Amino acid sequence: MEIRGPLELPALREEIELQTADGLTLVGELAQPEHAAPVATLVTLHPLPTAGGFMDSHILRKAAARLPALADLAVLRFNTRGTSSQRGTSDGAFDGGAAEQFDVAAAMDFARDRALPRPWLLGWSFGTELALKYGREHDIEGIILLSPPLHRATEAEVAAWGSTDRPVVVLVPELDDYLRPEEARERFASIPQAQLIAVDGGKHLWVGETQTRRVLTEIVAAVNPAALPLATHWPPLD
Predict the structure, then answer these.
(1) In sequence order, what are the residues at sequence separation of 6 or more whose Cβ sits closer than 8 angstroms to the Cβ of residue 200?
(2) What is the pLDDT of residue 237?
(3) What is d(CA 15, CA 64) in angstroms, rounded to the nearest whole number?
(4) Pair 142, 168: CB distance under 8 Å
(5) 8 A C-beta contact, residue 151 and residue 179
(6) H/E/C letters for each residue in the chain?
(7) Closest Cα partner for 150 from 195, 174, 180?
């Protein structure tokens, strides 16, 4: 069977709740490899909820559907405050990226309490702003940014990553609606270790199986390159 679209590969999937320091309950899911311990963890931060972003935004949903089986990764997804999905609605209300710092902290607390290994923050669009603004406060391996708009993260918050030794992987679509590769190179130049990957033909929403596979491949290249190349069929072809 070819791996594409909404196909969900085997994994241990668990509905979870996160508790924030300001008293909210956030709903989410943890997907882990079925027959082995995860080698690393993706803590995902979804796109802007006021524009339809949520834990089921397709790249994050497909990461959870495929990468536990294909790359031995744990994938934690959750709805930030006030955000709804099929899993349910998280408490609270959207705060423009301010109080969401407590949501990021709650996810990292959960990962620590469950001893999930080698956590990376994986942000998409609005989620990249949260990763840039608040990720340095937490014990993470690095951050992966998909389609960063750089609307909320300040120049100082971006540049502060340059004083860390943590990897910063930035996937910028050639045809992005907000930030395209040439400008992105300038705005991330303050982070010496930033790896900027311009994706030919890519758009902000990464629509289509070709774009999905490219994004998932780049994620795995950063987090568990030994799992590459990702299988395109299930069970994997010999």
Answers:
(1) 174
(2) 78
(3) 13
(4) yes
(5) no
(6) CECCCCCCCCCEEEEEEEECCCCCEEEEEEEECCCCCCCEEEEEECCCHHHCCCCCCHHHHHHHHHHHHHHCEEEEEECCCCCEECCEECCCCCCCCCCHHHHHHHHHHHHHHCCCCCEEEEEECHHHHHHHHHHHHCCCCEEEEECCCCCCCCHHHHHHHHHCCCCEEEEEECCCCCCCHHHHHHHCCCCCCEEEEEECCCCCCCCCHHHHHHHHHHHHHHHCHHHCCCCCECCCCC
(7) 180
**pLDDT tens digits, 157-179:** 999 999 999 999 999 999 999 99
Nearest to 176 by CA among 215, 148, 204, 200: 204
